[in-house]
Amino acid sequence: MWRELEPMTTAVDTDRRMVARSADGDVPTASPAVLIEGLRFRWRREQPWVLDLPHFELARGERLFLAGSSGSGKTSLLSMITGIARPACGTLRVLGTPLDTLRGAARDRFRADHFGIVFQLFNLLPYLSVLDNVLLGCRFSPSRTAAATARGGSPAAEATRLLARLGLAEPGLHRRPATELSVGQQQRVAAARALIGSPPIVIADEPTSALDGARRLEFLALLLEEVGQAGSALLFVSHDRALARDFDREVCLDGAESA
Amino acid sequence: MNIPSLAWHSLWHRRATAGLVVLSIALSVVLLLGVERIRAQARASFAGTLSGTDLIVGARGSAVNLLLYSVFRIGDATNGVSWASHLALRQRPEVAWTVPLSLGDSHRGFPVLGTDRGYFEHYRHAGGQRLEFAAGGVFDDRFEAVLGAEVARRLGYRPGDRLTLAHGAGRVSFMRHADKPFVVRGILAPTATPVDRTVHVSLAGLEAVHEGWPAGRGARHGPEAHGEHAKHAAVTAILVGLREQVQVLHLQRAINEFEHEALLAILPSLTMQQLWDLLAVGENLLLAVGVLVVVCGGLATATALLTGLNERRREMAILRALGASPRAIFGLVLGEALLLTVGGMLVGVLLLQALLLGALPLLADRVGFAIPAWPPSPREAWLLVGVCGAGLCAGLVPAVRVYRQSLADGMTIRL
């Protein structure tokens, strides 16, 4: 069920990770971004386990490619890492915090503070402008608002900067409703939202599956570059193994594929 | 972008639906407050029909009946009060003034009241307002009449016009005193009381009609024709004003125990209250209709929010992923319901004010029925609080549902 592929980590990558780790001052002990031991999960008691994970680790600043076909438990894993679902047994530590011991509201706040998330499709609220959709990334987190302010002068300025970095500098575009954008543009807005306020962990759940070949690689390159800039760890979920080569490490959740 | 601002943007995005909901709430508020205002005004107007009169005296019978025929011109008196009793009453030391009322005739469906000049001096309505003349003045001659505002308007009379009286109170009467035309001497300003529908003539004129006094021949002119010392037949009722109000109960008992004639004296305000209590069923019915309409407004809110929820599951999942708690999402939907309700209330109150301001001059002019546009009464404020509560209750259903959904769905997005 579980197999770690040959690490593609180079010495340079390791150094970069070390830098990112020490740069994060609030947890002096080098606790990984995500650490999972002996985790099992099922949605209902009478149902079979959808996830049985003896060990999983995402280092700080690491770029991890998570592969697995549908039904391999990717969604369940992401739900648990982001604190929406709780494991039936095992330990789950995110940035050193045992997530399963936090209460509901604290878990929501933890997610707001430490995660940036990009979905496969329809990431944006249709009734907000492009800029407001990006700013939504730090609305529920004072610490990310502070981080965005520290970096860009104000959250709005930081959002504008991120959008420009992701190729959305066109004037007038920021005020437009999010739904008027192309899918590729929407995904880049979603990436900007995930990155604003530099959260320590960015999770991308098949963010490129709605894009065509060239756009896919372009988006991935932008995402990797910005994650590197922000010093965030990236957990990139995809069934498209061709994208895996730019990552530090590749992990496969799918037992059948590993055979 | 806190939750209220999100709720606002979300509603603005669906402004067509939201606008309709706001409109339906606004209309229900217009109806509820309108009904309440008309009810309050009707009550005040009813209570203001007669003021300044301490006692009404009539033949012994039911108190409500005496009030109905003497003040509201509804029904008939079975018996009258003799002129001797009237004089005896007037001569009592505690009595400041008396106004005799003689009813029973009509003019084209409007009641005819025989009285004296004191009526125009002592009759008070709407908390102490005197009768005002829109044109002309008080009758001087026995064949002169003073018309209420509605009589003049509906029948198109102007001072100087002639009219004939009919015996009996019906609209169509075969016994007409055609040989005795009355001349319109004055027309009263609207009062929103039965005075508007009354033709006022002097007691002497009314009696002349009945006695077959030939018109224009032997008719005595001058105040002695209807003066204090004129002899008259029985009258229907007497309005009594006292020198000292504290004596009212004492005098009432004295009249009720009057030995020469079976009389009844009533306190107008007290009996008016009894009569209003009889009418309270209708009052409550009006209010019940208003409340039902508000419930409908609440249902419209709930429907509008519920139908949108399935399409918004994805939106809720995104918000959850961004760190919004299920409670915040609950608050978002409830906030939308609150915004719709408050918006509807504001539009409704403004609409009602506009309607009243538009209709006010017309109402005051035509029926003398003034509905003050501002300020709203405390009762209306409570009704608005109730509307707000109904809106919140309506929002609670979709909010609870979205709360449960967001707990179950989490970040998983159903397409």
Explain what the structure shows.
The complex is a heterodimer of chains A (259) and B (415). By secondary structure, chain A is of the alpha/beta class. Chain A has one domain (3-251): P-loop containing nucleotide triphosphate hydrolases (Rossmann fold), CATH 3.40.50.300. Chain A is built from 9 helices and 10 strands. Chain A has helices at residues 11-23, 74-81, 104-114, 130-135, 142-152, 155-165, 183-195, 213-230, 255-258, and strands at residues 3-4, 34-41, 51-58, 63-67, 89-94, 97-98, 115-118, 201-205, 233-237, 249-252. In chain A, strands 1-10-4-9-8-7 form a 6-stranded mixed sheet, with helices on both faces. In chain A, strands 3-2-5-6 form a 4-stranded antiparallel sheet, covered by helices on one side. The radius of gyration of chain A is 18 Å and the shape is globular. Chain A starts with a strand and ends with a helix. Residues 1-28 and 255-259 of chain A have low confidence and may be disordered. By secondary structure, chain B is α+β, with helices and mostly antiparallel strands. Chain B has 2 domains: 3-46 and 279-409, no CATH class; 55-266, no CATH class. Chain B is 52% helix and 15% strand. Chain B has helices spanning 3-13, 15-47, 63-70, 83-90, 118-122, 149-155, 203-211, 248-256, 268-309, 313-321, 326-366, 378-409; strands spanning 55-59, 95-107, 110-115, 124-125, 129-130, 133-136, 144-147, 162-163, 166-167, 182-188, 199-202, 237-242, 263-266. In chain B, the strands form 2 sheets. In chain B, strands 1, 2, 3, 6, 7, 8, 9, 10, 11, 12 and 13 form an 11-stranded mixed sheet that branches. Chain B is elongated and about 100 Å long. The model of chain B is unreliable at 213-229 (pLDDT under 50). The interface between A and B is medium-sized, with 32 and 26 residues.
